[in-house]
Amino acid sequence: MSSFFIFLKTKIILPIIIGISGLFGFPYIQKETTPPPPEPPEKIEVIDQSPKVASITPVKIKEETKIEVKTDATTVLKRETLAENEKEMLLDTDKVNTLVRSSVINIFCTTKSGGDFRPLCGSGIILSKGGIVLTNAHIGQYFLLRDYRVKDFLTCVGRTGSPAYPTYKLELVYLPDAWLTENAQKINDESPTGTGENDYAFVAIAGLISGNQSSNQNNIPYLEQEMENVFAPKTPVMLAAYPAGFLGGITIQKDLWLASSVSNIAQLFYFNDPEKIDLFSIDGNIISQKGASGGAVVSLKTGKLLGIITTATDAKTTGERELAAITLPYIKSQFEKSTGKTLASFLAEAPADLVAKFDNTLRAGLTEKLTKALDK
């Protein structure tokens, strides 16, 4: 049985470079020597290899000059330029930064006795005033191991602030069966890989760590979501996550800081329908570290959440790495197709009701699928 990874695992396979994640590999973007037409975004293909990797042919856009920057984890990264958007009317970055940072949490899971797994550290984004949190499926799958072998084997909490401090109790309320069917067997892989397709999950804030259900839980900050197909290269964005690529285990537990950064959308991709944007890449920046999975990508034009970080390329420095994020319209479409309910109605439900529905319907089947793969 493999260890329960704290950090994103990195693996390079040439000529295809495999993406990385906290617990699940991400596809790298293969650069073309001759730029294809800018529309439509290129289709993401999966090829049969061992381990399975994704071959992505991107839309080639004009290369931007990489800007070397310095920052600390407590302040927003200020780039010298925002590409061609520099002259456009953008929102105040400080205000967007404050909003985004207040809506991103650190997801931190530990086991009752240590043993088989080490702690999991990732990020999540609060989407509703009730406390529904969006994260990656490769993080959410570990919530299914809550009672693995023994009751309350694994516990996950939501930490906020800098350094991250335990704030919320978390419970899984949705994870795509399609993702688990495709990826459950990879839980034992040292360096699992994939495309990022269906790599989303929802968890709910089920209470405060103190156990005091005070009025604070009724005033949880959250981000509005962009549900229209408005994605374009060079759009300036704000990113926020709890990256931990250069930190040791004790530091992650005691001194993990939230980081935020300004960057730009680079390239656009789709999984099946060329009329839709399902995934986009982001220029390298300080967020491009292990542990950024589940982080937020927010438009500096609208202040709305555009996507959730799900993949990253491999390079020696963060400035050379490209992140990739799946879009909110893609998540909405896949969720509604799979469940038959609207995402809006789902986010409007009380967290306690969603926890009960998930436990009474989907949890047992998903858990069995994952534990069978884990026990092989």
Overview of the molecule:
- The chain has 376 residues and is of the alpha+beta class.
- Helices cover 18% and strands 25% of the residues.
- The longest helix is centred in the last third of the chain and has 12 residues, at 328-339.
- It has helices at 93-103, 137-140, 177-183, 249-254, 328-339, 343-348, 351-361, 363-374; strands spanning 42-47, 53-56, 76-77, 104-111, 120-126, 132-135, 154-160, 165-174, 201-208, 236-241, 259-270, 279-282, 296-299, 305-312, 323-327.
- A 6-stranded antiparallel beta barrel has the order 10-11-12-15-14-13.
Mean pLDDT: 74
Low-confidence stretches: 1-40, 42-86, 245-249, 313-320
Beta-strand content bin: 25-35%
Q: Oligomeric status of the shown chains?
A: single chain
The number of distinct β-strands equals 15
- What structural class do helix, strand and pairing data support? alpha+beta
Choose one word for the global shape: globular
Give the ordered list of helices and strands.
EEEHEEEHEEHEEHEEEEEHHHH
Looking at this protein, list some descriptive labels.
25% strand; 376 residues; globular; 6-stranded antiparallel β-barrel; alpha+beta
Layout of strands and helices, then pairs:
Elements: E1 42-47, E2 53-56, E3 76-77, H1 93-103, E4 104-111, E5 120-126, E6 132-135, H2 137-140, E7 154-160, E8 165-174, H3 177-183, E9 201-208, E10 236-241, H4 249-254, E11 259-270, E12 279-282, E13 296-299, E14 305-312, E15 323-327, H5 328-339, H6 343-348, H7 351-361, H8 363-374
Parallel strand pairs: 1-11, 3-11
Antiparallel strand pairs: 1-2, 4-5, 4-7, 5-6, 6-9, 7-8, 8-9, 10-11, 10-13, 11-12, 12-15, 13-14, 14-15
